[in-house]
Amino acid sequence: MAAHTERWLEHWSDEEITEIESAVAHFEARDVDLLDMRASHYVAPQALQRVMRIRNDVLHGRGFALLRGLPVERWTIRQAAIAYWGMGLHMGEPCSQNGKGHVLGHVKNLGLDYGDAGTRGYQTNARLPFHTDGSDIVGLLCWRSGKAGGLSSLTSSTAVFNRLALRRPDLARVLMQPFCLTRWGEVPEGRKPWSEAPVFMSHGGRMIARYVRSAIHKGQDLAGVPKLTAQQIEALDMLDEITKEPDMVLDMEFLPGDIQFVCNYNVFHSRTAFEDWPETERKRHLLRLWLACDDGPDLPDVLIQNCEGQTAGGRPNGIAVPGVPFAAPLEAA
Ligand SMILES: [Fe+2]
Predict the structure, then answer these.
(1) How far is the CA of 290 from the centre of ligand 1 (A)?
(2) Strands 206-209 and 200-203
(3) Residue 76: how many CB atoms within 10 A of its CB?
């Protein structure tokens, strides 16, 4: 993949950019809240044809793509959010990404300490180890790229599993048994403060993965969660080691305007630590979408039962806490 960027890195055509800008202008003129936008409000036939082809590749083919060249430097952040949100509405159903109901997420260093129980990685400038997000597809739009670092890295979770199974089949089996993951204090009524699922689940002809080691680690502090065994820790360590092997990893740079889409169930993502510019308006800033797709991969029951809730199409719907209305803020909070 590193030697064949043409397989996964696409550039918008001038005609597509014109369509997108016109769709954005049209929506802005209506003066409607982003949350009230419907897919039919966003008309950009050629651009959406590309988006939908990529969506299919992400869900059922290669598992990821990078779209380059949205001219965000001449847009406001609201215009960028509209352009991106509109694509998301055509691809799937945007899901809440935290207990505050944020369906448009902000990946930005808020100066928080990743060591604190409630801090999520996206609020820091720390290196993030390989993991999955919620929902079927995670999208990132780069609004500002920061001063240095912050490379995005991907690896095929299926390839990681295969290597692990060849090297240590005993540990591969351990990772196919349940682990407890904290819900980060964002607990729907009637649920435990943690969820339980294996890291790897063989289902529907695919190896479905769900892995957030920080959530497993922080789950250990919750009363009622059994302590990890030495063998479980060895298995998690070996998984992490394999994701560090250079032939497993694809690094990519984010330029302003880049959009990355990744299928959570077959691709792990991470990023390197980064350094920010001192000026607030130049700080690294990505807009995130979690999209549930009705025709996403077949999922094992344990993933459906353990999720906070489901979309009308029966897909896990992210971190939807009952009673918390959706919000699509234009700034990190
Ligand atoms: Fe993530």
Answers:
(1) 10
(2) antiparallel
(3) 12
Ordered by where they begin, the domains of the chain are 7-150+252-306 (3.60.130.10), 158-240 (no CATH)
Q: Beta 194-198 vs 178-182: how paired, if at all?
A: antiparallel
CA 27 to centroid of ligand 1, rounded, Å: 29
Question: SS3 for 270?
Answer: strand
Q: How far is CA 78 from the centre of its chain?
A: 21
Q: Which residue has the tokens 């029966």?
A: 314
DSSP single-letter state for residue 93: E
The pairing of strands 137-144 and 259-263 is: antiparallel
Q: Is 241 helix (H, G, I), strand (E, B) or coil?
A: helix
The residue with tokens 């779209």 is 67
What separation in Å is there between the alpha carbon of 165 and the centre of ligand 1? 25
Q: Which two tokens stand for residue 134?
A: 């919620």
Q: How many residues does the chain have?
A: 333
Report CA Rg, the chain: 19
Side-by-side strand order, sheet with 128-131: 128-131, 267-271, 152-156, 250-252
Paired tokens of 41: 């409000």
Q: What is the pLDDT of residues 194-215, one digit of tens each?
A: 999 999 999 999 999 999 999 9
Question: How far is the centre of ligand 1, averaged over its atoms, from the C-alpha of 107 (Å)?
Answer: 9
Specify the range with the lowest mean pLDDT, choosing from 5-9, 99-103, 248-252, 285-289: 99-103
